[in-house]
């Protein structure tokens, strides 16, 4: 049995939510066809003090979605080519987001968004709605590892090396 995650799930701190995202189903309705992908790897970006987080410069046009209450999609473009999907978490004005890095069939965040037609049009979209959402099917994650995040060489040593990437093993 599948259950759509409700708004309350997303209201906690990213550090609490992130391990619970592993194994959940990322769902996308594309022209009436529902696609589901099991989340296998995520990364946490948390607060203005996190020098790898888009909120490190405060509330900007790019990062303003992260300041909303949890339960919406934060989607941005990298390298002028690829969109990445993040799950906003926590209370309003506490900028946090969790990047969906890989799923069971897609080993990269850009491959995932391309396959599921996730782009800037879904930025700020409610994860309680019918375009994009998360479900639980009671899948049990037996083991995961915590690792440093990837591709954040611009961050200071502490945040570059913090183990805020979680991956099912």
Note the main attributes of this structure:
mainly beta, 3-methyladenine DNA Glycosylase, Chain A, 169 residues, 9-stranded antiparallel β-sheet, globular
How would you explain this protein's 3D organization?
With 169 residues, the chain is mainly beta. The protein has one domain: Roll (3-methyladenine DNA Glycosylase, Chain A). 12% of the residues lie in helices and 33% in strands. It contains 3 helices and 9 strands, in the order βαβββββαββαβ. It has helices at 14-21, 109-115, 157-161, and strands at 3-4, 25-30, 33-46, 73-78, 82-88, 96-103, 132-136, 144-147, 165-168. Strands 1, 2, 3, 4, 5, 6, 7, 8 and 9 form a 9-stranded antiparallel sheet that branches. Strand 2 (25-30) and strand 3 form a beta hairpin.
How are the SSEs placed, and which strands pair?
Elements lengths: L2 E2 L9 H8 L3 E6 L2 E14 L26 E6 L3 E7 L7 E8 L5 H7 L16 E5 L7 E4 L9 H5 L3 E4 L1
Antiparallel strand pairs: 1-7, 2-3, 2-7, 3-6, 3-9, 4-5, 5-6, 8-9
By CATH, the architecture is named: Roll
Number of strands: 9
Strand content: 25-35%
The poorly predicted ranges are none
Main sheet attributes: strand count, strand direction, barrel closure = 9 strands, antiparallel
- Average of per-residue pLDDT values: 96
